[in-house]
TrEMBL record:
SUPFAM superfamilies: CNF1/YfiH-like putative cysteine hydrolases. Transmembrane segments: none annotated. InterPro entries: Cu_polyphenol_OxRdtase, Cu_polyphenol_OxRdtase_sf, Cytotoxic_necrot_fac-like_cat. GO terms for molecular function: copper ion binding; hydrolase activity; S-methyl-5-thioadenosine phosphorylase activity. It comes from Marispirochaeta aestuarii. It holds the Pfam family Cu-oxidase_4. Belongs to the purine nucleoside phosphorylase YfiH/LACC1 family. Coiled coil: none annotated. It catalyses: adenosine + H2O + H(+) = inosine + NH4(+); S-methyl-5'-thioadenosine + phosphate = 5-(methylsulfanyl)-alpha-D-ribose 1-phosphate + adenine; inosine + phosphate = alpha-D-ribose 1-phosphate + hypoxanthine; adenosine + phosphate = alpha-D-ribose 1-phosphate + adenine. The keyword Signal does not apply. Keywords: Hydrolase, Metal-binding, Transferase, Zinc. This is Laccase domain-containing protein.
Length: 246
């Protein structure tokens, strides 16, 4: 399960683009905004303006779907409801068939997870933090074992990593029980979680063959918005996007 090759990570001033390997030019567009783009939170008065500027820079002129994220494991299809601004539908995963449009999710230490069905073009975007870890399994169980093996690509994006994701012992134990010893780290009585390893473990268990990641720590790297580093009052929400321009 390799990291995405450096050549497939395209850095721009206000966003990072991730290129998935594809036989043709049919892969969806994947991106994550950086701190430079401004906070994308609906609670931030300038959030809508930051979004529009990013869409303009990316050339996105098609509908962008969003949800009210609440660390659930709900994966919903897009609808008129997910086009409301600010969002009204609760969920932390969105899916849509191939066609003009984008899925969006905000993250600030939580992991954006991008899924692409290479044959039918369906795409899914997940917001996966500690509480919502496992939403990847919810999304993948929609597909048959054969589809997971042959037709699904999973890409795990930047999140807080186990250098910084310190938690209390109880949360550590819960995470360890659910996702195994590889998904946690203990050092001199301090406890840490690895969202990357937890999600790689889920993908492996469900026998997804095509899994990639690019997972620099959002807390260590100031180009990313981070709840832990910037604090609850000032953190910058980043926008994860996957979609088709046409
Ligand atoms: Zn870190």
């Amino acid at each position: 399960m390799p990291g995405l090759p450096e050549s497939s990570v395209l850095r721009n001033r206000d966003h990072i683009e991730f290129r998935l390997l594809s036989d043709g030019d049919d892969a969806p567009f994947l991106a994550l905004s950086t701190v430079e783009a401004g906070s994308m939170s609906w609670k931030d008065s300038r959030g809508p303006e930051h979004r529009q500027r990013l869409y303009d820079n990316l050339g996105i002129e098609v509908p962008v779907h969003a949800q009210l994220q609440q660390h659930t494991k709900l994966v919903n299809p897009v609808s008129d409801k997910t086009l409301r601004n600010p969002p009204v539908q609760t969920g932390d995963g969105l899916r849509m068939p191939r066609g003009p449009g984008f899925l969006s999710a905000t993250v600030a230490d939580c992991m954006p997870v991008y899924i692409w069905h290479r044959k039918i073009g369906e795409i899914i975007l997940l917001h996966s933090g500690w509480k919502g870890t496992g939403i990847l399994a919810e999304a993948l169980l929609r597909y048959s074992p054969r589809e997971r093996k042959e037709e699904i690509t999973v890409f795990l994006g930047p999140s807080i990593a186990d250098c910084c994701y310190q938690v209390d012992r109880e949360r550590y134990n819960l995470f360890r029980a659910s996702f195994g010893g590889r998904a946690v780290r203990e050092e001199e009585g301090h406890y840490f979680l690895s969202l990357l390893q937890a999600n790689l473990g889920i993908a492996e268990k469900l026998e997804v063959t095509s899994v990639y990641y690019y997972n620099p720590c959002t807390c260590c790297n100031p180009e990313f918005g981070s709840f832990r580093r910037q604090g609850p009052q000032k953190f910058s929400s980043m926008l994860a996007l996957i979609g088709y321009f046409q």
